[in-house]
Amino acid sequence: MVSVASVLTLAATAMAAAPVGKYFDNYIFVIMENNDIADVLRSPEYNAYIKAGVEFTDYHGTTHPSQPNYWSTIAQSTFRGIKVSNVSDNDSSDWGQVIDGDNGDDVFDITGVTTIADSLEAAGLSWGIYSENYPGNATNCFLGQGYGTENYPGVDADHQGKTNRLYKRKHNPFVSFTQISGNTARCGAHVFSEKDWAAAVKADKFPDYSFIVPNQVDDAHDFNANTDRTNLTKTDEGIEWSAKWLANFLADVNKSAYLNSRRTLIHVTFDEDDSAYDLNDSTDPAVQATCKDLVNNCPGDKTNNQVYGVLLGSAVSCYTGTTIDGKFDHNSIVATLNDNWGLPSLGNSDSYSAAVWPLKNCPVQHQYQAPAATNLYSAGVKPIAAAAAAVAAALLI
């Protein structure tokens, strides 16, 4: 395992010019929540992204519950078995606990582990995480478990009006690592809210690496009420709500002269599937017996935590409509970033799929065309059939 200290030492001697990527110059990662791939593929919008980009046909979450999946995306490990020396909420009852999945959505402080943030900084590459409803700022590294009230119309009764839900620390993986959480200046320089992303859009100035976290409603986690279309299940409604958010997000990205002048790779995925929870929570003992161990992607989950994944942007503009068929999971993200920018291995991987995505170099830059609409949805019934074509037209292709 590469130490944080050694990586940060390299930063002091990094070249003035950041390395040029093999396949992309900017990476934008958007992560949604807790849906089976079959449910997501029922969405015309998410299907339109596949047609306009490059589809992963065998992409997986690394475990359950959510938080270790997020760690995998930046540090290539679920860190199962690590004994935590302290927690930021100062709840002494949690001190000394071991990450084993049962407590895998909590306030952990992980020490002495290198993440992609350390590697990026050492190479002179810029990065930022943008979490919707994050209340911190440049002088306040917010380390609480959550913030915000879900006052959205349509949020199901289990979540409506509850506090500390819109922003969740467990979906902000960088603050689980003490080199970020224990350094207010560093945290403030890289850990942002959606307001900071809006400022980046306005200024047309973006970091090389962007990690985008919608809030607990916009990521399809908690929006499960069928409010505007009777032909949708509750699961479908949450997915369509997230598709609305994503369409608006991509419309802003696609207006960027800066990003359109570079090879920009946009990666959209979900953290984990939902079938495992259905099995684990079943009232049928025989069904529940097929998923006693969520952490190890229970045997009753026939897709083994497979999730939706697609690559969009000018970086894949020369091979849109194709597929990546190898078996990958979230650990492959760091492996691919390392390969693209010549970064050192983190030495943390505990998965079969710390493999590199088979990308191509698309030399011809995308020429921006305005999307058909900046908001593909009306206030009432969503025009689903027409939206698919409009979404495709709005993408970098």
Automatic annotation (TrEMBL):
Keywords assigned by UniProt?
Hydrolase, Signal
Pfam hit, one: Phosphoesterase
Q: Kindly give the Gene3D superfamilies that the UniProt entry links to this protein.
A: Alkaline Phosphatase, subunit A
Region forming the signal peptide: 1-16
Q: Which GO terms describe its biological process?
A: phospholipid catabolic process
For molecular function, the Gene Ontology terms on record are:
hydrolase activity, acting on ester bonds
Tell me the InterPro entries matching this sequence.
Alkaline_phosphatase_core_sf, Phosphoesterase
Instruction: Give the matching PANTHER family.
Output: ACID PHOSPHATASE PHOA (AFU_ORTHOLOGUE AFUA_1G03570), NON-SPECIFIC PHOSPHOLIPASE C4-RELATED
Q: What name does this protein carry? A: Phosphoesterase-domain-containing protein
